[in-house]
Write the structure tokens for this entry.
Amino acid sequence: MDKTVGRCSQCGGNVTVPSEWLGIHPPVPTCHSCGAQAVSRLPIIETEPVAEANSVGYLAEFDKWTNNTRSKLDKIYNLKENSKP
């Protein structure tokens, strides 16, 4: 028994996948009429670009965090170096 998941862009036939399958990889959606296979299994999601100011702000925050972490690690490392005989 096949499950219809859409219409074929080539011939307008039903695009189906098996409702039950035994395998590791999922079946490729295939047109029942002409045999054409789906190019992509994922839907296209509409997106919009991130504003430049936001991405620069995130990078600045990341740099601040990494510099603070690096200075803390340097202090710890120096303390360990000073404690050696």
